[in-house]
Amino acid sequence: MHTTDLWPAPYAERPVNGTVRVPGSKSLTNRYLVLAALARPGSISTVRRPLVSRDTVLMRVALERFGLLFDAAEDDTTWTIHTPQGLKSDFAIDAGLAGTVMRFLPPVAALSLGSVTFDGDAAARTRPMGPLVHCLRDLGVRVDSTDGTASGTDHAEPHLPIVVHGTGSVGQDEVAIDASSSSQFVSALLLAGARFEQGLRLRHVGSGLPSRPHIDMTLHTLREVGVRACEPEPGVWVIEPGPIAALDVTVEPDLSSAAPFLALAAVTGGTVTVPDWPASTTQAGDALRGVLTAMGATTQVDDAGLTITGPAPGTLRGVDIDLHDVGELTPVIAAVAAQACTPSRLRGVAHLRGHETDRLLALHTELSRMGGDVDQHEDGLSIRPAVLRSATLQTYHDHRMAMAAAVLGARVAGTTVVDVGTTAKTYPAFAAAWSELVR
Q1: Alpha-carbon torsion angle 274, 280, 285, 291, nearest 10
Q2: CB under 8 Å to 404, separation ≥6 — which residues?
Q3: What is the Cα 375 distance to its own chain's centre?
């Protein structure tokens, strides 16, 4: 779908009932791919049911430039990955708008023998990169950026494009980081830490640390491949040096991509089941169960998966909730809150201003466009009951904004969405799956 296309959001005339199988987790897929790149030279890893989307394809293409070989099953349900004897260098990486690519791979580039340039979409050049760049420099890695900073020569904040000059190793092992704007900076260093000569001791020194479940996910994936990784005290992580074993893993469903479908049950009073919901997970999307329960839905996890049943029409409740650890769910939760019969306060998500777009500003703008009663705060939103009207909703090249727009359109007839195709970042078949379930 071309970026200028308008998508008529399907309107649910009655409660929506059905089952939808979502693709694999982007966060897990890209972590596994990075670990496969850092595994023992010559090893072979297997990733089953990987997410195949813009972000993961950008990661795969970048790793192929480092020298990895991918053998994919014809239906892309299994990727066999051959780790090279040494990482190649002297090339450029297109990170698109993928935070995992632009942030996870610079530490990998530091372990190559040569320079690697990172750039991306226009919007990617506004996303924070400074904390990672400063940390790499503190670890002795030369990183140049076009905003005038080179190896820490001044205090300007680096953004893409950057150039990492690898020397084949990272000798220093202790560094402090302010990851208040994104937990991805922590995960980026932890993923590569076992390949540093002395391992890594990383200390967070910022005012807050968002999306903690994603750091837990990183630690879990490291342990899966034999890395000794721990958090001996809050905000301090230790990665022991040593080899990274080859992978043989099956990727969990992307629980955050399931969020709009579960929200659809909540706002229409229907019942939606997502199969293969894990009994235990580090994915932030699992928190949606508790949020929707607080808003009046009922939830059940059994052999069939996770089933959400929405409350009777007109009885959906608002919530006052801190989403600091699960900020990626905020757009969909805001779309549900805008249809509740009591007010909501979504807090703790100031870091969303540095995501694919300023999500708080975008949500305030689009909900207001529909007649919503919304106030924007430094760290979140207040949303009060209002009669919503149809509108053409912008998505800002942001997959989560597009998913939230679909939830709104399901209950407001005549809503159209600009560039629903941006969901290809994490869920290429989203529009088709959504239309099939609603209609």
Answers
A1: 90
A2: 260, 331, 332, 334, 335, 363, 366
A3: 25
* 159 HSE (CA, 13 A, CB side): 12
Catalytic annotation on 328?
yes
Write the CA distances from 38 to 13, 42, 119, 157, 399, integer angstroms. Answer: 51, 11, 22, 29, 29
Q: Which two tokens stand for residue 424?
A: 């290809």
Six token digits for residue 23 = 């693709």
Cis check: omega of the bond before 106, within 30 degrees of 0: no
> Residue 392 carries which side chain, given as an amino acid letter?
T
Query: Cα–Cα distance between 51 and 251 in angstroms, integer?
Result: 8
Residue 82's φ and ψ, nearest 5 degrees, are: -100, 120
Hey, what are 185's tokens?
């900076």
pTM for the full predicted model: 0.92
Alpha-carbon span 55 to 67, nearest angstrom: 19
Q: What's the CA gap between 385 and 365, in Å, rounded?
A: 16
User: Is it the case that residue 146 has pLDDT exceeding 90?
Assistant: no
Dihedral sign computed on CA atoms, order 65, 174, 27, 352: negative
How many degrees, rounded to 5, is the angle at CA 374 between CA 438 and CA 318?
A: 60
Decide: 281 and 255 in contact? Cβ < 8 Å. Answer: yes
| CA neighbor of 1 nearest in space, from 420, 356, 353, 359 | 420
Q: What is the pLDDT of residues 99-108, one digit of tens each?
A: 999 999 999 9
Q: Containing H/E element for 274?
A: strand 271-274
One-character DSSP codes across 170-219:
----EEEE--TT-THHHHHHHHHHTTSTT-EEEEE-SS----HHHHHHHH
Judge whether 367 and 390 are in contact, CB under 8 Å.
Answer: no
For residue 237, the cross-strand partners are 202
Cα angle for residues 422, 192, 79 (degrees, 5° grid)? 55
- pLDDT tens-digit series, residues 385-432: 999 999 999 999 999 999 999 999 999 999 999 999 999 999 999 999
Tokens at 416, concatenated: 């159209």
CB 415 within 8 A of CB 409: yes
Catalytic residue among 328, 366, 378, 436: 328
Taking alpha carbons only, the member of 173, 228, 226, 225 closest to residue 197 is 173
DSSP summary character for residue 253: B
